[in-house]
Amino acid sequence: MIVTTAAEMRRMDALTIEKHGVPGAVLMERAGVGAATILLDRFPHVRTHGGVVVVAGKGNNGGDGFVVARALKKKRVRVDVILVAAAGDVRGDAKAKLHAWRRAGGTVRTVAADRLEPLARALGRACCVVDALFGTGLGGEITGLPAEVIAMMNAAGLPTVALDVPSGLDSDRGVPLGIAIEAELTIAFAAPKIGTVILPGARYAGEIAIVDIGLPAEAVAEVAPRTEAVSALDAARLLRPRNPEAHKGTHGHLAVIAGGLGKTGAAILAARAATRAGAGLVTIGCPSGVLPIVAGGIVEAMTWPLPDDGTGRLASGDDRAFAQLLAEKHAAVVGPGIGTNAASNDLVRRLVTTRPLPLVLDADALTCLGRIGAGHDRPTDGAPLVLTPHPGEMSRLLGDETVAIQADRLAAARKAAAAYDATVVLKGARTIVAMPGGRAWINLSGNPGLAAGGTGDVLAGIVASLLAQGYPPDEAGPLGVFLHGHAADRIAGRQGMIGLVASDLPAELPATMRDLLRLAADA
Predict the structure, then answer these.
(1) CA–CA gap between residue 425 and residue 480 (Å, rounded)
(2) At residue 499, does pLDDT exceed 80?
(3) Could you give the CA distance from residue 335 to residue 314 in angstroms, rounded to a whole number?
(4) pLDDT by residue (tens digit) across 187-246?
(5) First vs last Cα of the chain: how many Å apart?
(6) Contact criterion met (CB below 8 Å) for 285 and 256
(7) pLDDT at residue 318 tops 90
(8) What's the pLDDT score for residue 9?
């Protein structure tokens, strides 16, 4: 499911109008009529319990609102239209839709800073509010009369339906511009806007529904939006069913370089997730001193002793052990619990400068990579590299403050992907997957129960397992992230989020994938 920036959507609209001959007024009509249909389906009680108030601005979003009002009136819904501007300030297609509303017998009441009573009265008798104040073109912070109006709408306690984007929300970054509408439902035109899908914007948008306004496929293809949201159906279409003639060698052999003194659980979690995500064979390489602990924690995986400095941590000086571990493997996950000593630094440097096989770097390996920096030597024909940082680790990779990364997570993920020539999985609420060329995905699964130690190790194991099975990074990344989050959603649905632990997740993966395969078959 594509999600767009404001600029991408404006360009697609312009191509539709200029190149394909569809007038802007027609697109506005389709948007408004479609939104009215969805509103009536979602809130059928508006026909009999107080009606709807449409709060409109002077721009195109207001024009959409006038169409919604007219379509609802045609369905015998009582509608109040409140215009937060002078009628003479309404221009273009919106002006034509305002006239059409009036010709249909509708009335318009305007408000000003010293005259908010019409809005207060309308809110007092309505059972639903349509937000048609601002669309995707909003730039500066909301102040003055619009801010007062938004505050009144939020305080009314009524379900609010936002047209395209909740007014006051930055449609690209998902942050409120001072104040924003808190919608129960956002009706997106053509495609959701990025700011309504990422957090915190998703909390303001509420549920999202989509109206097809008839953009030609050629216009969409010419603009080629670079961002997608990963839903259950998207993940289901990526997941490959098993061949009836498959055997353990068919689905890849994964190396897991993980675990050290006090962190053997990280290796076990990553390996257990990899087996449950479908890898045919898994071998764990860890310092020899802790190998018995790791071997006792998972019976399905093989183990391989790595040099130990005598304290249960990786040691340098014997590259053969690492080479033998990686020989004839199809992918490797490196980092959970390996520490950040000189030996770990050397290992990560060798791997990222040679990329001998598809690699997932997680946890301590990311700290080591941050020390090496984005300017390290890169092989021209090396295997894919996947990085799975949380915001703190991303801060070390980019040298940016964590608060800046969180302020624009999508931009940060793209920046790191380009800098390190890697697929980047920026973990967190609405995890983002970004490719070096700029393509990105926003994951829609997961819940706060994943905010627990070890869940990142599980995610790294899942993504690496998919790479070992032959999935390319642009499938392994978004699919692995969705599986991880969806498994957590299933668990939370049974037992709640609080107390969900990392070891709950691997066992949930087979049933999660089974149900996704059924969804794909039924689609």
Answers:
(1) 10
(2) yes
(3) 11
(4) 999 999 999 999 999 999 999 999 999 999 999 999 999 999 999 999 999 999 999 988
(5) 15
(6) yes
(7) no
(8) 97
**Who contacts 375 (Cβ-Cβ below 8 Å, separation ≥6)?**
none
Name the H helices within 215-263.
Answer: 217-223, 232-238
Backbone CA torsion sign across 492, 496, 497, 499: negative
**Tokens describing residue 378:** 């890169």
Q: What integer is the mean pLDDT of 358-381?
A: 92
Contact 132, 64 (CB under 8 A): yes
Tokens in use for 228?
A: 């997608």
Q: Is it the case that residue 302 has pLDDT exceeding 80?
A: yes
**If DSSP codes are grouped into helix, strand and coil, which group holds residue 487?**
helix
Examine residue 506 and say whether the peptide bond preceding it is cis (omega within 30 degrees of 0).
Answer: no
Determine the average pLDDT of the residues in 401-406.
Answer: 95
How far is 406 from 375, CA to CA, in rounded Å?
24
- For residues 426 and 424, give the distance between their C-alpha atoms in angstroms, rounded to a whole number: 6
DSSP code per residue over 277-335: TT-SEEEEEEEGGGHHHHHHH-SSSEEEEE-B-SSSSB-SS-HHHHHHHHTT-SEEEE-
| pLDDT at residue 225 in the model | 96
Coil/strand/helix, residue 209:
strand
Q: Which residues pair with 54 in a beta bridge?
A: 81, 130
Indicate the SS3 state at residue 78.
Answer: coil
Q: In DSSP terms, which residues pair with 82 in a beta bridge?
A: 55, 109
Question: What is the set of domains in the chain, with CATH numbers?
Answer: 2-225 (3.40.50.10260), 235-522 (3.40.1190.20)
Mean pLDDT over residues 369-377, rounded?
89
Q: What is the pLDDT of residues 115-169, one digit of tens each?
A: 999 999 999 999 999 999 998 988 789 999 999 999 999 999 999 999 999 999 9
- Residue pair 373/356 in contact by the 8 Å Cβ criterion: no
Are 503 and 270 in contact by the 8 Å Cβ rule? The answer is no
- Identify the burial level of 295 via C-beta atoms within 10 angstroms of its C-beta, where 0-12 means exposed, 13-18 middle and 19 or more buried: middle
What percentage of the chain's residues is helix, strand, coil (to nearest 5)?
50, 15, 35
DSSP label at residue 58: S
Helices (H) and strands (E) in the chain, counts: 21, 18
The whole-angstrom separation of Cα 47 and Cα 82 is: 19
Residues 6+ apart with CB under 8 A from 110: 82, 83, 84, 85, 86, 87, 118
Question: Other C-beta atoms within 10 Å of 86: how many?
Answer: 10
- The pLDDT value recorded for residue 137 is 82
Q: What is the mean pLDDT of residues 460-479?
A: 98
Question: In which band, very low, low, confident or very high, does the pLDDT at 381 lie, cut at 50, 70 and 90?
Answer: confident
Dihedral pair phi/psi, residue 107, rounded to 5°: -115, 160
Q: What is the DSSP letter of 115?
A: B
